[in-house]
Amino acid sequence: MITTIIFDLGEVYINGVPGLEDRLKPILGTDVKKIYKEIWGEDLASYFRGELTEDEYWAKAIKNNKWNTDATTLKRVLRENIYEVKGTRAIIEALRNKGFKLGILSIHGKEWIAYCEKVFKYHKLFDATEYSFEAGITKPKKGAYLRILKKLKVKPNECLFIDDNPKNLPPAEALGIKTILFKNAAQTRKELSSLGIKI
User: Fold this and answer.
1) Residues near 199 by Cβ (< 8 Å), separated by ≥ 6?
2) 45 three-state secondary structure
3) Residue 62 burial by CB count (10 A; 0-12/13-18/19+): exposed, middle or buried?
4) CA-to-CA distance for 14 and 26, rounded, in angstroms?
5) Closest by Cα among 96, 93, 79 to 185
6) Could you tell me which of 20, 82, 109, 117 has the fewest CB atoms within 10 Å of its CB?
7) d(C-alpha 19, C-alpha 16), whole Å
8) Are 104 and 9 in contact (CB under 8 A)?
9) Where are the alpha helices (H) located in the chain, listed in sequence order?
10) For residue 86, what is the enclosing H or E element?
11) What is the pTM for the complete model shown?
12) 106-151 residue pLDDT tens
């Protein structure tokens, strides 16, 4: 029986980096594809593992690409690109009202999470959160899933995990966690219903 539902954060509840390249194009005056490649490089992975601060991440991006801008501008534009994914909060609130235990398992950076929690206050809806920057472990590594299970004090077969990245689902399934590949809120509601979770 499913008693606990674990959500990914980025592009499931909050949009963060995707689409940032379009906002940055007029500022940087360079190709969108090139900006995308640089944003999603190894330095971002290091930031998400807590190995770099946000300032260090942007400083490296500016230096490596000779961008004619500053970290303050990039930080502002990134935050302007953060918004709630339509319909997901209503699902989370409905599940909470139904008595489900809720958790977050997300690959994310410390400063971005601090901003999101301050603006959206979503963390108050969850019983536990697990972010990659806290332990330097990112999905799809097994340890990431085990950490959130431990925080929630639940067994894998009691859990459902919702993520928009198909690569992150098989490791959860291997532990015995049921999964849903998030595409949008309406589709997720239907899949929840098919599992007997009607909201």
Assistant:
1) 91, 94, 95, 98, 189, 192, 193
2) helix
3) middle
4) 24
5) 93
6) 117
7) 8
8) yes
9) 20-28, 32-39, 42-48, 54-65, 71-80, 88-97, 110-120, 132-135, 142-152, 169-175, 185-194
10) none
11) 0.95
12) 999 999 999 999 999 999 999 999 999 999 999 999 999 999 999 9
